[in-house]
Backbone:
């Protein structure tokens, strides 16, 4: 009898094992999780990277896709999407967190970013090709208001506002994986100042690197800030953040101001625009624009004064004016030099240069570069014109690139035809005015 009972118990155990096996076959293999399983936390994307937990009892199959990167299990089981179900490779008793992302259907998807004085974090909502467009800011202006101003010349009349140098434009297409993070710094327009009655401080530069304008009874405009895309966040002037830039639209310089007012150099292009000399001013060397390897020199850079290198443009920073009345340089990949004042002669600052990773003629820096020791990529020189030397060390690279300076000239390895540039409003402009701007458009897979 005992033997019979033992056989019955053994049989029941075998039936139980078989039943469990039928319910959970090959538990160490690929498994289909039951969508009603209490071990699952189920999240649905409501907007870009914002998720909400759901109690729904079936998997989403229309308009959503499993986020296999974000989805995870506590004991490292792997989740995949197979035959319209979530499949697990590992232990079926694992606690799992499953995320579904909304599929972007409204093509082209476009995001517009304006200047806010801080960085903007962009997270790619879906994998595919994105077109990125950047506009550099304009330099600050000044009023031609000196009582002995020459009203006969074309630079302006007493009381007339003279605008600063215009910003450049860059664009290109880049392949981004979903959830790729980019940081966008949109340049601010340079500041304007003018007075005939009091002594003023410098006009501070536009956000993201604009150089300061000169001081005195007629304060000159400051330089505009560049607009750029970075892979690393941080303060706008943090070197490691600046080093991570993969696209830059150069900004224009401010307007100088002494007896006559004259606009600053334009921004953009592989080399930013030169500063300009005020009418009836004593001749001197003009500020030079930022290039692909150096910041621009300030006005009168080896004449009359010492320590002029302190007012040169730098990596991502426009130069300040060395003396009264000269204007600030525009920011860019490398900033333009600041303006200067020489024996009753005044000149404006110069514009900053643009950069696009992968654009022939651009020169990328080496990843090992330090703030006081910036180097080109290994094997590249100032004369290099190869895609390899133009590509950022991260290997993020743009295609179908376009680079247009603040006068409207299109650049390849040098300035070409004057075509103008698209404005953020969809019109054509000969150089960008006002604050900088950025636009990111999803083009599809």
Residues:
């Amino acid at each position: 009898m005992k033997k019979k009972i033992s056989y019955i118990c053994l049989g029941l155990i075998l039936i139980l094992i078989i039943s469990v096996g039928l319910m959970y076959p090959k538990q160490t293999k690929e498994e289909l999780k039951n969508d009603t399983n209490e071990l699952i936390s189920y999240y649905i994307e409501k907007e870009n990277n914002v998720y909400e937990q759901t109690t729904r009892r079936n998997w989403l199959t229309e308009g959503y896709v499993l986020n296999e990167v974000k989805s995870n299990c506590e004991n490292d089981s792997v989740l995949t999407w197979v035959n319209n179900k979530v499949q697990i490779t590992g232990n079926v008793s694992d606690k799992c967190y499953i995320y579904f992302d909304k599929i972007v259907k409204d093509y082209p998807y476009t995001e517009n970013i304006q200047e806010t004085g801080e960085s903007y974090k962009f997270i790619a909502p879906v994998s595919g090709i994105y077109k990125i467009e950047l506009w550099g800011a304009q330099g600050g202006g000044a009023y031609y208001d000196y009582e002995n101003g020459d009203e006969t010349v074309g630079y302006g009349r007493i009381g007339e506002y003279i605008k600063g140098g215009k910003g450049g434009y860059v664009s290109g297409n880049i392949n981004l994986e979903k959830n790729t993070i980019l940081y966008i710094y949109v340049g601010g327009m340079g500041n304007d100042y003018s007075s005939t009655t009091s002594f003023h401080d410098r006009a501070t530069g536009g956000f993201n690197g604009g150089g300061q304008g000169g001081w005195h009874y007629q304060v000159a405009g400051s330089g505009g800030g560049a607009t750029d895309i970075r892979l690393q966040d941080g303060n706008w002037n943090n070197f490691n953040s600046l080093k991570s830039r993969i696209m830059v639209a150069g900004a224009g310089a401010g307007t100088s101001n002494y007896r006559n007012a004259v606009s600053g150099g334009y921004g953009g292009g592989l080399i930013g625009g030169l500063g300009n000399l005020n009418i009836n001013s004593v001749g001197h060397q003009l500020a030079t624009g930022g290039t692909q390897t150096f910041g621009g020199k300030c006005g009168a850079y080896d004449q009359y004064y010492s320590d002029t290198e302190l007012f040169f443009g730098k990596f991502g920073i426009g130069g300040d004016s060395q003396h009264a009345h000269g204007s600030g340089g525009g920011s860019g990949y490398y900033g333009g030099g600041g303006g200067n004042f020489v024996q009753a002669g005044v000149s404006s600052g110069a514009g900053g240069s643009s950069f696009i990773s992968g654009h022939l003629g651009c020169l990328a820096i080496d990843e090992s570069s330090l703030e006081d020791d910036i180097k080109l990529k290994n094997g590249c020189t100032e004369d290099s014109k190869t895609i390899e030397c133009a590509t950022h060390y991260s290997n993020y690279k743009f295609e179908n690139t376009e680079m247009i300076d603040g006068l409207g000239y299109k650049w390849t390895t040098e300035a070409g035809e004057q075509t103008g540039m698209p404005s953020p409003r969809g019109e054509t402009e000969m150089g960008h005015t006002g604050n900088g701007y950025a636009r990111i458009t999803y083009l599809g897979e």
